Structures are given as structure tokens and as C-alpha cells.
């Protein structure tokens, strides 16, 4: 098997009984632990108007994580570009790239990362901006280019600063764009599972080499919950199941503490909508999850896995990520 990188996507999930400052500190502690065990990058996702998600001001939180770590790459997974002016994003990420050289990633998506009403509050012309996503990405690229030095509109903070771009997708649309531009492609298969295989196929078939990438590079999101036993992992996963059920039923709230898996919750977890959303969720002991991860890599042939571990307790989360790193090192044939 080729050497597969492994990374983290964090939403700064707010658990019941904790403050937002606690949550940010937990994210930093996780990033520091991830750095120790060989994770390639730590990405934060942009979401808005959600009581349980603390990563709304994504670039600000990235600065906090980058300042508290030394080597791990820190990035956006992603910045929802239609919410923003490309010039402002180039200024923010150019600044981060100067402060933390060769450590900042800019992942770009076109979804709002919120509900329709909030999307309108963020930017009244959001839907027009979403339609212009390819052109908005071009603006970002131009602002980071040294060739923009003669332009009337410049982002001097970004020109020549090494901040690689990634195109994010949850459908097949962005696969075409990432392939056309010769950019790395990250698919949100940790919740949008329907189009993963089609999107990867489109990207590979249509990929055009670019200055930044000679051959296709793919990343895929997976939900990972690992504990000492299958039973303990199942218990911890009840927090995730309750969160997903809450999302689907419009009853959003803080991440709830885990409970023993009840017959009622097990029945709800078998709902087709829940099953579809959590299709690529690998939950169990290290031995159980290793087999599932190996199969996923064989099926997708991705270059990098980006793990999402949304569970209640910060210590359980760090333990799960440490065990996942052990799995990836074993699959990659690395010796401890």
C-alpha cells in the first residue's frame, strides 16, 4: 500500500457543560497531541449559527492553533468562500502564512456552512457568489501570485507567500473544478457520502497538471471513534449519534455525554438518513477500525485520510486520535 497521510478536521465541538474557551483549549491540546504522533495537518471547518460548533471565525482560531504548535500544518477545511471577499481571505491567509511559514493551508468550499437565513445575513448576495465560485478561486490565486505586483488591486501580504490551495467538495461539482485547476481535492465523505466514488473518478479522469500539482491528490473525510473495546467505542459513539439525529430533526444542541446504547437509540441509528450520513464511520477497537480503514483505502485509493472524531470528552478524543495514528503507521509499514 502507498504511504497514506493522515490528518484531522476539527469543528471545535462544544460539549454540554463546557465553555467556548474550554473548547478552544481542547482543540489546541488535540493539535499538540496530533503533532506528537505524526498527523500531517489540523484543519478547522467554517460553520455559523450552531450552538455546538465553535470554529465560526476560522482564520482567527487557526492563528491560535498555529501559535500553540510547532510543525503541524494548520488550515481551513474549509473557508466557505462565497461568505467572504476573496481579497480579505487573501489578506488573512497571507498574514498567517507570513507568521507561520510553510504551515498554513487554505481549503476552499462553496457551501454556506449554515442555514439559508444565516447565509443571507452573512452576505446578501451569497447565492450569486456561490455561482461565481470558480472565478472567486481565481481571484485568490491571483492575489497570492507575484505576477499581481503590477495590478491596481493588490494583496501585498499574500504575494509570493506559500499557502497551498485545496478545493473541497460534497458533490461532484467541485471535482470538475479541482481537476481543471490542477489543485488537490478533499471530499467531505464524513457526512456527504453519496457522491464520493463518482467525485473521485471525475477528478482523476479530468485532472490537468498545474504549476502546483503534477498528478491528482485526493483526501477523504472519515468519522473515527476508537476505544479499548468495541463496546466502549459504541458507548462513546452515542454522543455522535444523538448529534446527527438532532441535526436531522432540527433539534440542535450541545454535544451530549455518552450513554449506554439503548434499544431506542440503536433503532434510531438504523434510520436510513442516519445510516447514509454516517456510512463512512469507523467505530470500535483498534483491531476493528484497522480493518475498516484498510478496506476504505483499498476502495477509494485516496492519498490522505482526514479524520473527524466528534465525541464528548476531550481525553477520549485524544486517545481515539492516538490509536488512529497507530493504525495508520501500521498500515503504512512504519516502525514505532
From TrEMBL:
Species annotation? Maribacter dokdonensis
Similarity remark: To bacterial alkanal monooxygenase alpha and beta chains.
Gene3D superfamilies associated with the record: Luciferase-like domain
Check the record and name the Pfam families matching this protein. Answer: Bac_luciferase
Q: Where is the Luciferase-like domain?
A: 15-295
Please identify the protein, giving its name as recorded. Answer: Luciferase family oxidoreductase, group 1
Q: Which InterPro entries match?
A: Bact_Lucif_Oxidored, CmoO-like, Luciferase-like_dom, Luciferase-like_sf
Question: Where does the source fall among the domains of life?
Answer: Bacteria
NCBIfam families, per this entry? oxido_grp_1
Amino acid at each position: 500500500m502507498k504511504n497514506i497521510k493522515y490528518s484531522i478536521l476539527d469543528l471545535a465541538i462544544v460539549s454540554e457543560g463546557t465553555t467556548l474557551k474550554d473548547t478552544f483549549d481542547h482543540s489546541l491540546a488535540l493539535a499538540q497531541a496530533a503533532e506528537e504522533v505524526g498527523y500531517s495537518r489540523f484543519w478547522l471547518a467554517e460553520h455559523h449559527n450552531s450552538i455546538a460548533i465553535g470554529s465560526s471565525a476560522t482564520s482567527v482560531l487557526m492563528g491560535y492553533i498555529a501559535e500553540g504548535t510547532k510543525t503541524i500544518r494548520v488550515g481551513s477545511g474549509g473557508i466557505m468562500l462565497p461568505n467572504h471577499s476573496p481579497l480579505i481571505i487573501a489578506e488573512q491567509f497571507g498574514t498567517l502564512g507570513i507568521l507561520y511559514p510553510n504551515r498554513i493551508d487554505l481549503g476552499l468550499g462553496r457551501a454556506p456552512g449554515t442555514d439559508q437565513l444565516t447565509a443571507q445575513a452573512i452576505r446578501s448576495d451569497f447565492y450569486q457568489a456561490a455561482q461565481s465560485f470558480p472565478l472567486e478561486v481565481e481571484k485568490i490565486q491571483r492575489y497570492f501570485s507575484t505576477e499581481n505586483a503590477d495590478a491596481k488591486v493588490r494583496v501585498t501580504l499574500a504575494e509570493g507567500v506559500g499557502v497551498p490551495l485545496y478545493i473541497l467538495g460534497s458533490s461532484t461539482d467541485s471535482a470538475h473544478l479541482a481537476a481543471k485547476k490542477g489543485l488537490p481535492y478533499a471530499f467531505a465523505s464524513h457526512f456527504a457520502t453519496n457522491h464520493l466514488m463518482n467525485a473521485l473518478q471525475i477528478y482523476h479522469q479530468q485532472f490537468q497538471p498545474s504549476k502546483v500539482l503534477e498528478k491528482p491528490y485526493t483526501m477523504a473525510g472519515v468519522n473515527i471513534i476508537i476505544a479499548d473495546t468495541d463496546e466502549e467505542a459504541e458507548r462513546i459513539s452515542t454522543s455522535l449519534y444523538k448529534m446527527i439525529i438532532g441535526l436531522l430533526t432540527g433539534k440542535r444542541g450541545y454535544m451530549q455525554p455518552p450513554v449506554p446504547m439503548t434499544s431506542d437509540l440503536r433503532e434510531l441509528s438504523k434510520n436510513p438518513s442516519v445510516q447514509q450520513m454516517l456510512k463512512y464511520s469507523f467505530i470500535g477497537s483498534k483491531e476493528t477500525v484497522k480493518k475498516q480503514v484498510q478496506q476504505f483505502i483499498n476502495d477509494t485509493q485516496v492519498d490522505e485520510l482526514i479524520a473527524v472524531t466528534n465525541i464528548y470528552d476531550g481525553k477520549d478524543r485524544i486517545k481515539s486520535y492516538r490509536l488512529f495514528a497507530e493504525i495508520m503507521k501500521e498500515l503504512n509499514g512504519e516502525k514505532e
